[in-house]
Write a structure and sequence with these properties.
It is built from one helix and three strands; from the N terminus they run E-E-E-H. The chain is α+β, with helices and mostly antiparallel strands.
Length: 80
């Protein structure tokens, strides 16, 4: 069961999907109007590892800030 890259023509979401017997759908909008993309091999080197680590660190910081903001909004709107 191969994993393929897809781009949704309806909402432009790009994602990977494990293709089984049924046609995959976009996880964002549920559309089946998908374009199969060409997957490129990943070359691993110290530079790519560093870049991925940097991107992951940024992503974790953004998610933490979003969680903190959401918690503040919840507390603000649910004062007992």
């Amino acid at each position: 069961m191969p994993i393929f890259d897809f781009s949704c023509r309806k909402c432009a979401n790009k994602f990977e999907a494990l293709v089984r017997k049924q046609t995959p759908t976009c996880p964002k909008c549920g559309s089946e109007d998908l374009e199969k993309l060409i997957s490129l091999p990943v070359v691993k080197s110290e530079t790519t590892r560093q870049r991925i680590a940097t991107e992951n660190t940024k992503s974790v910081k953004v998610q933490a800030a979003e969680r903190e903001y959401t918690q503040r909004q919840y507390e603000k709107n649910h004062e007992d």
